[in-house]
Hints:
The chain is mainly alpha-helical and 318 residues long.
Amino acid sequence: MMATNYLGGILILVFVISFMDGWTRPCRNSLVPRLVSSNQIVKANSLLSSINQIVQILGWSLGGILIVYIGEIYVLLITICLLALSTISLFFIKDPTNDTTVNQDAESKWKRFSFGWINIWNNKILRVATLMDLFETFAGSIWIGAIILVFVKKVLYKGEEWWGFINASNITGMLIGSVVAWFLARWINKKLIVSLFLSSLSVCILTFIFALNNNPWISLGIVLLMGIPYQLRDISQQTIFQKNVEYSILPIVFSAHGILIYMVFGLSVLIMGLLSDLFGVKTVYLTAGTLYGISALLTALVKSKVNIEDNIKIKSTL
């Protein structure tokens, strides 16, 4: 009975953290263009991404060690303290932009709720970027634990520890990708659409190779390499939103984008799991490779028609 009570509390805690994280990401991503100049956005995104990957690597490795030596309760207390420090640190961030007053009437609330989706659709750059992200989010469910574990056991013929190796390799690749984006920031800033295309195409090719390969060591190398273009794509897409939407409404647009992404991801987990059961786990990865290819094709189709620098920013009408 006591174990059940603890489990319920943990589930509630996880829900609350995830709920608050849904607020944090749009706000954090919206702050970047407020704090740095336009030509520094790519570097800022790369730096934040690098820090995020480093923290994940340290968190996963140190977390396991701390649980062994001091126990899970103390680790949870440390986590709570770190979250509190993170919250306090926000008070030291000075937003140089002017605050925007927003009406609180019912009509205005509905307008704000629908504003993000409407303007994502009306802006060609954001529409294509979001559509790409939906395809890639659907494909990205291949990296959830349940599907990777099946791939490790039935294709690579390895134990559960290789699931951890693949995750570590993926995070390391994304960290390298963030560093690469930092050094290529000037080029990415000028060629955002090209960066999106090349990174999506690279992920597509590497996913197909991963699906058809049976060697576990080669798989680790592929996942490591895949993390680099995946991170470049993510940084490029985030920068596109930040450069094409005004500061005051960027949180609304990011929130609308996030809702779509989370909905598609939830659906993709269900469908990819079903495909794995019916047709085998390799089919899932081949399907994902196809979706990444469609994403790259979308970028190629829009590349010659839209100049990112000439695209008009979405402006606040709230």
